[in-house]
Design a protein that fits this description.
60% of the residues lie in helices and 11% in strands. The protein has 524 residues and is an alpha+beta fold. The longest helix has 31 residues. Strands 2, 3, 4, 5, 6, 7, 8 and 9 form an eight-stranded mixed beta sheet that branches. A two-stranded parallel sheet has the order 1-12. The two termini are 21 Å apart. The radius of gyration is 26 Å and the shape is globular.
Length: 524
């Protein structure tokens, strides 16, 4: 019962501001959806069972929507059931029309097309083949499905080529690594052929646009190689084009030891740097919202240029989502909703994306930045204001935020995943990030200028390359130095249970603030 005094006060003076529960729908529903996909992989339930749960729960969420927290809870449960149904529906049905059905068959002939850019290293090439016909025991059968083919590096087999393969067809477990076999299956590669006889039947198939993009990528790679020595050229190719196959083994090992592999493959970090550079270039000429739209278009154009692989598209979507939340919607807090929306769309298209390590790391790093970078930066600003003079505060706060806070915020949620997947902890990661990350925008800017100049006019590449070489050489020197320090990389494995426990503790801390907001606000 309200007191007489409270009854005479305006409602705004006695109640917390109203919070529309729809504001929380995307993150709450996104969490439920992802949890449903994860649960469905562990529960042997048919689609009908998941839908039987989803339909009444979603109906209840609609009916109880005005109850705020109750409606959100029901929406989360409904999204979880739908996520489970989507995962089960995505599982392949084994039949004679699927190439995977014939795993274990020997001396078969498969006709198919190279469906993605071939992956090459020093000794071999890996081809993803979309099968169309299988011949076994003298009988030809139309089939569908994808398989991974390991073959010789030469002769080079291009994207879009139609090939005839003759050899043994194996299940991915034949690789001898259960984790790698599970990875291949979740990539939709249900079969494997190792060094079959390969005959190129035709070339020029596939998407003309994708083939053109691969041509531009090859031209950019050639311009880099012509302008820079090794290993600088290989490092820049990895940073700009996502192709790290040319890196020497010792340098690759040093990047792993220092936890810096995120800068040698197209990832959320690279996209963030590109967004920053494009923002700097467009700011003087375009309004903020117009610039945001232009930057998002250019991000996806860049993703297409480097081959539009799943990891690049994922990073582009997450970067564009974050930019849209900050610029177009005008509310940084909505970026979290946008992130979960992007995760929903990607896992809707392919539920197995949830187990992609790159997806997990990109999602975790972006979420960490959204959750922690702002609050920690404000705390640092208050501390700087109390300790330093007014004329030095902005400079100190800026560099502390960009060099330390952003690095720590991105790593809070990714370190547990790195321990779980790779079983190593890199104490050298923090100093490596602090020393190497500040020059990466300069690497990408000067390196990009070198690549473009060399692609347009081959003689111009070496002329503009020296600044790029300088920043690349600094990066290589820092990584080499820190990788050789005692204890730079330590074996430390985190089990699945440990991973869940760590994230439960982090979620408890973050969730406490959200629960306080929900229960001290009038959620409508």
């Amino acid at each position: 019962m309200r007191s007489p005094i409270a009854a005479q006060l305006p409602r705004s003076a006695t109640a917390a501001p109203a919070v529309d529960s729809r504001f929380y729908l995307a993150p709450v529903g996104g969490i439920g959806w992802l949890a449903g996909i994860w649960l469905a992989a562990r529960l042997d339930l048919p689609v009908v069972a998941w839908l039987a749960v989803a339909l009444p729960v979603i109906a209840g969420a609609i009916l109880w929507w005005r109850r705020g927290r109750v409606g959100l809870a029901l929406a989360a449960c409904g999204a979880m059931a739908l996520g489970g149904a989507r995962y089960v529906a995505s599982l392949p049905v084994l039949s004679p029309a699927i190439v995977q059905y014939y795993n274990g068959a020997q001396d078969v002939v498969i006709l198919g097309r190279v469906m993605a850019e071939p992956e090459r290293d020093d000794h071999r090439a890996r081809l993803r083949i979309a099968a169309s016909e299988l011949v076994s025991d003298g009988r030809a059968r139309p089939v569908a499905g994808a398989l991974l083919v390991e073959t010789n590096r030469y002769p080079a087999i291009p994207y879009g080529a139609t090939v005839r393969l003759r050899g043994d067809l194996d299940a991915p477990i034949a690789t001898g690594s259960p984790s790698y076999a599970a990875y291949l299956e979740r990539q939709g590669l249900g079969s494997l052929m190792s060094f079959p006889a390969v005959e190129i039947v035709a070339t020029g198939g596939g998407s003309p646009l994708y083939r053109a993009m691969l041509g531009l990528k090859a031209r950019g790679r050639a311009a880099i190689v012509a302008a820079l020595p090794e290993p600088h050229a290989a490092l820049l190719t990895g940073i700009l084009l996502g192709d790290d196959s040319g890196l020497p083994r010792d340098l690759t090992d040093d990047f792993r030891a220092t936890g810096m592999t995120h800068i040698i493959a197209i990832s959320g970090f690279n996209i963030a740097v590109i967004i920053g550079l494009l923002d700097l270039l467009t700011a003087p000429a375009l309004p903020r919202r117009t610039a945001a739209v232009v930057i998002m278009i250019l991000i996806f154009a860049y993703a297409a240029l480097v081959g539009a692989t799943a990891s690049v598209v994922r990073a582009a979507i997450m970067g564009a989502t974050y930019l849209a939340g900050l610029r177009l919607l005008g509310r940084p807090s909505l970026a979290v909703a946008g992130l979960f929306t992007a995760a929903f769309l990607m896992t809707l298209a392919g539920p197995n994306t949830l187990w992609d390590v790159g997806f997990q790391l990109s999602f975790a790093a972006t979420l960490g930045l959204m959750l922690f970078a702002g609050p920690w930066s404000r705390r640092v600003d208050r501390g700087v204001a109390a300790l330093f003079a007014a004329d030095t505060r902005p400079w100190i706060a800026k560099w502390t935020t960009e060099l330390l806070i952003v690095t720590l915020a991105a790593q809070v949620l990714t370190v547990p995943l790195l321990l779980y997947h790779f079983g190593r902890f890199s104490p050298a990661s923090l100093p490596a990030n602090l020393l190497a990350l500040p020059v990466q925008p300069l690497v990408m800017f000067t390196g990009g200028l070198t690549m473009v100049a060399g692609a347009v006019w081959p003689a111009a590449g070496p002329i503009v390359a020296p600044p790029a070489w300088l920043f690349l050489d600094y990066t290589i020197g820092v990584i080499h130095l820190l990788a050789r320090l005692p204890g730079a990389s330590l074996p430390l494995t985190l089990s699945g249970t440990g991973l869940v426990a760590v994230y439960a503790l982090i979620a408890a801390g973050v969730g406490l603030a959200a629960v306080c907001l929900l229960y001290t606000s009038r959620c409508v």
